[in-house]
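Hi support team,

I'm opening this ticket because the web form for multi-chain structure prediction keeps timing out on my end. I have pasted the exact lines I submitted so you can reproduce it. The total is 336 residues across two entries, so I didn't expect it to be a heavy job. Is there a limit I'm missing, or should I split the entries? Thanks in advance, R.K.
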Amino acid sequence: MVIPISASATFSVVEISDAISLLSEADWLRLGKISKRFSFGRIDPDDLLQEAFASVLEGRRKCPHDIDIVRFLAGAMRSLASSQFKSLSHSPELHFISTLTDDENPGIDLPTETPNAAQTLISEQEVAAIHSAIMLLFSDDEIAKLIIEGDMEGMDASELYELTGLDKIAYASKRRLIRRRIDKAYPEGWTP
Amino acid sequence: MRNHNHRDMLERLTDALVEDILNASDKEILSEVAEECADPKVEADKVRRLFEKAQAMVAKKRLVAAREAIEHDKPQRAKVIPLNSLQARLKLETILHEHPEETREFTLAARKGKDLSDADVLGMLEDLQELGLYNPESETETNK
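Hello R.K., no limit was hit. The queue was backed up. Here is the completed structure from your submission:
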């Protein structure tokens, strides 16, 4: 089915609603997986995704025509989660817990009830423990460890090709192995 | 310079994993979910239902906002003050007596009030109200 698109640079609320409702089964599954990743094991992934949908349907977030809708929704989830963690990191009871640095879109409330910040934010110690556990997951695979370390440093694909010496196909295969192993170890996101 | 605290590093790894999910083929995604759970269709439907819930929630919010806007724009209903015929005639007489200069334009018949219908009396009281000589609200307060 072809959805007629308006002349403006972004989808209207009706257009985006129609476009989302026509997503493929694989796209719905992608969104479900991504919500778990961005929930960091503490925000309800369903709430995060529902809020991302709501922000688009209410016109608070405008999706440009040239951006893939699933990618756009992923960005919305990332931004919402980041805002949630940031607002928690600034709440008074958080002074013993280290803070996040992402400044994107502060002040957007998620529909989830947050009992208190200490229960909701993963502490720096827990994050450090997850970091160690991830590296342990790949103790048998030096190339995978290199890629993960590169990811953590924010390296892009070209830098990682150079670092690992892998070609495009081998690199894609290794990336899939990394994600699959992490998905199995952390099916609900980064739970400590 | 890149931040090297564990949280930022984990966030960057998360971004890379999400990028990988976005770049994976439909076939890969479907087969992965099939490995993780019994039926990818059931999982996809769960996510679709979240979208439908968001649609319903947004529609409800719009409805509430529209209703509030209507309430806000609705004109205040005119206040009805009960006044019987005798009270009205007495009030008219009193005002005409108290304000002879301002009510000069009223006819002699009106001043006497004998041949006036109830509607005439009420009409004159409304005119006097417009002139600021009669305030029905203060009247009702007094009568309480």
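A quick check on our side: The radius of gyration of chain B is 38 Å. Let us know if the file doesn't open in your viewer.
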